[in-house]
Design a protein that fits this description.
Radius of gyration: 22 Å
Largest sheet: 5 strands, parallel
Shape: globular
Strand content: 15-25%
Structural class: alpha/beta
CATH topology of the largest domain: pyruvate-formate lyase- activating enzyme
CATH class of the largest domain: Alpha Beta
CATH architecture of the largest domain: Alpha-Beta Horseshoe
Strand order of the largest sheet: 2-1-3-4-5
Number of strands: 18
């Protein structure tokens, strides 16, 4: 009997939750093919690097990693980098093989040096096949479900549109099937992800919307939570009331990630963002009034070309008015191929750093105050991971806020009733009610 040869592979993943889903799918395909999987070892038989280039420093990190590998003959590069910067890979890492994200399900064909049909890159049915097999999840309790790729926007600073392309949405039936399979396998959290979840299904005929999809998912039997991924605020106006209804369902986290990017209408126009400052403030106030305990996450870009001190103060003012619990701050950097990169009105690096520090201080104050308002709250949480310290567990409450519990006896994946006894700037502290 011929002895089976051990095969090893490392799948390194970077970037958004959609990339996480792709990496899990690739790992699952490799495992079924007999590979043992690592996420860090650079001495395996095969290395797959799932890249991100949304920010300049991330792009540099990806390139440095590729250039540092001692032998690139068994390296496969996927993710956004090969889509936008294929020529750089061919010139600097000539031995590496390229796998477009849409063709990730054909990873085994590429390994065996069989042709991969790049002409099918925009066919939704091709890339969703990656999720028809059992994945290797980073956390078996959490399944990230990629519901669409691409977007309908045209932001002047965004390179992701170049990488992801125009909107392509998966069929509701394929998503429902994947969610059912994930729940049957033991997952308790379903993260719906896309470049813009708010535009899910808009290009399909007949048109479907995100609330339509969620309304079907919450009918699935069992106890679990659905997390809605990032969406552009302007898309909500087309299905605001149905969305509010679905978020108020007990199976949906009371959580929304709505990037504002700037509090200045002048900058929003330069960014080619739809909607104005006033629209955002009005929307958030309405959502908070109709969704009890809604937690808001937002993004702000500091130092966009042409941003004046007054523009920046308007961003500070916006944050003060809408009071997001989670605020992601980015210093603007040029991205190749974007309109903003060609601007001659760049903000000096020193000023960007100063503004970023100011906004960070304000954000931390607001986040701490918002989290402290939860002290005394009692409700259900899902324990989804171990804490960073011994005898510590991490959970999520119904608004997706992280809760640290000093108790190691409860099992992962169980729902527990806790009382919030404290808060930091980043998480809540809870005690299980016995």
């Amino acid at each position: 009997m011929e002895e089976e040869i051990s095969k090893t592979a490392t799948v390194m993943n970077f970037g958004c939750s959609a990339n996480r889903a792709i990496a899990e799918g690739i790992s699952g395909a490799l495992k079924q093919y007999g590979y043992s999987i690592s996420t860090t070892d650079v001495n395996t038989d095969l290395i797959i690097i799932n890249t991100c280039i949304v920010k300049q420093n991330t792009e540099h990190r990806m390139k440095d990693l590729l250039l540092s590998l001692p032998d690139t003959r068994n390296v496969i590069v996927t993710g956004c980098l090969p889509v936008v910067m294929q020529e750089w890979i061919e010139q600097n890492v000539p031995n590496a093989r390229i796998l477009y994200p849409e063709n990730a399900n054909e990873i085994l064909s590429l390994i065996e040096n069989q042709p991969v049909n790049a002409n099918l890159r925009l066919d939704t049915q091709v890339w969703e096949k990656l999720y028809s097999h059992k994945r290797v999840l980073y956390n078996p309790l959490i399944t990230t479900v990629e519901i669409s790729r691409g977007c309908l926007g045209n932001c002047s600073y965004c390179i992701v549109k170049h990488a992801k392309g125009h909107l392509r949405s998966r069929s509701p039936s394929s998503i429902i099937k994947e969610v059912n399979n994930s729940l049957d396998a033991g997952s308790k959290e379903i993260w719906l992800t896309a470049q813009d979840t708010g535009t899910y299904g808009w290009e399909r005929k007949p048109k479907v919307t995100l609330p339509d999809l969620i309304s079907e998912l919450v009918q699935i039997q069992g106890q679990f939570y659905i997390r809605i991924g990032m969406m552009t605020p302007d898309t909500i106006k087309t299905f605001k009331e149905p969305l509010i209804t679905q978020i108020n369902n007990s199976k949906v986290f009371s959580f929304l990630h709505l990037p504002s990017q700037s509090g200045s209408n002048s900058i929003l126009t330069k960014m080619r963002r739809k909607g104005k400052r006033e629209d955002y403030i009005e929307l958030v106030h309405e959502l908070k009034s109709k969704i009890p305990e809604l937690v808001l996450s937002t993004d702000i870009i500091v130092g966009f070309p042409g941003e004046t001190e007054e523009d920046f103060k308007l961003s500070e003012s916006l944050i003060t008015q809408v009071r997001p619990t989670i605020i992601n701050i980015s210093k603007y950097t040029d991205r190749p191929g974007t309109t903003a990169a060609k601007s001659r009105s760049k903000v000096p690096t020193k000023i960007k750093s100063q503004r970023s520090k100011r906004l960070m201080q304000l954000s931390q104050e607001i986040s701490k105050q918002e989290l402290e308002s939860w002290i005394g709250w009692t409700g259900s949480v899902i324990i989804d991971s171990k804490g960073t310290k011994k005898k510590q567990l991490k959970a999520r409450n119904s608004s997706y806020l992280p809760v640290v519990i000093n108790d190691s006896k409860k099992e992962l994946g169980t729902f527990q009733t806790v009382t919030i006894t404290g808060a930091t700037r980043n998480y809540l502290i809870g005690k299980i009610d016995e």
